[in-house]
Amino acid sequence: MDLSIFPERFREGIETLAREFSVEQPELFQDSILQGAADMLVWTPDELPPDVSEKLVWVAQKTGRFLFLSLPYENTAQTEEWARILEMELSLREWLVLDHREKRLICTARRMQDWRVGMVVGATDYETRRKQIKHNIDTYPMRVKVPREEHNTPLILVCYGPSIHETWRTAVAEAKALGGHIATNSGAHDFLIKKGVIPHYHVEIDPRQERANFTEQPNPHVSYLIASVCHADLTAKLAPYDMALYHLNDGPESREIFEYEPDAVLTDGGSCVALRSLSLFYQMGYRYFSIYGFDCSFKNDMQWAGPHPGKKHKVQEVQIVGGPDKLFKTSAALLTYGTQFFEHVNMLPDAKFFLHGDGLLQEWAKTNAKMAREAQTAAPLAANRS
């Protein structure tokens, strides 16, 4: 393989992957080939089959936990189609469209079925999101400063799950006792302000117009951290206050951000605002996260802590394997957020996370911790028997 087609900083890693996982004749794929811990597929222009899109559907479905993909392309529309195909099955980690001696796409991706329960559909269409990003970048110059060096200030994140009715006072007390910063997302902003509590930060990521209704009581003492994909109604409402934009790493339109803003920093994360908030604050140097209202479940008929412009979730009942003898009312989307939370935590080993309240995610975390302790205890016993 000619490594000169890749940027120099990628060559060593690509060479290692090529030695271990290369498939020399991709057109001869058999079902057994793409089942390992990592898979690599590199097509040269001569090897590129006429039905690339169909091949990529098959590859996305058959790949193991990790995929490295490199192939030539003809135009940008072609790469956008391939991204949509792969995103149906895989979580794209890197998506590099290079125009070197030949046009070449480089993609790394992870299998989502390890944790994904349901399909999370993007809010609004691609073109709408792209236009909103471009409008906000052109209109508002302030940016969230990332990355920053880590520091010791705790971050108290208040989400909009039903349990904050019982726990919001504890969140306020914890912030006061530890000298921490309170951050809210979605409806938790107005919820706390109506209680006389002014958060330090508020975070939004949703591009839909109705999400501007979450901040009916903007406050000059709040720093509003708003994703550039958000609707113009929201950014216009918050522009007179302390508002700064940040950029989501979230699909093909995110790659275009570098065309508008070459020095942009993208924020990874899961499918909901709570998970993106954790990623953003991690970039801002926070390492202590105390989380309230991230329940991933409902309380009786209450799906949120208060009014919400979103559609009601289709309710399903689940029980945690190895957990308490209790049924939780939840939805496919919330189960996805929960499983993404644990993946997210594992990717940030130098941070500490604390969950508060009575909900599915909190019990899920307790059960996982219990099972981990039991496994650690059992391991030395098993070694002694052998």
Describe it.
The structure is a single chain. With 386 residues, the chain is of the alpha/beta class. It folds into 2 domains: 3-111, Translation Initiation Factor IF3; 126-374. The protein has helices at 8-21, 52-62, 76-87, 126-139, 164-178, 188-194, 232-238, 252-260, 273-283, 332-346, 360-385, and strands at residues 39-42, 66-72, 90-99, 103-111, 155-158, 181-185, 201-204, 223-227, 242-248, 266-267, 288-292, 316-318, 328-330, 352-356. α8 links the parallel β9 and β10 (266-267). The longest helix has 26 residues, at 360-385. Mean pLDDT is 82; it is low at 20-37 and 113-121.
Strand content: 15-25%
**Radius of gyration of CA atoms, rounded to a whole number:** 23 Å
Query: How far apart are the first and last residues' alpha carbons, in Å?
Result: 46 Å
Mean pLDDT: 82
Order of H and E elements: HEHEHEEHEHEHEEHEHEHEEEHEH
Distinct helical segment count: 11
Number of strands: 14
Low-confidence stretches: 20-37, 113-121
Shape: globular
Helix share of residues?
25-40%
Taken together, the total number of domains comes to: 2
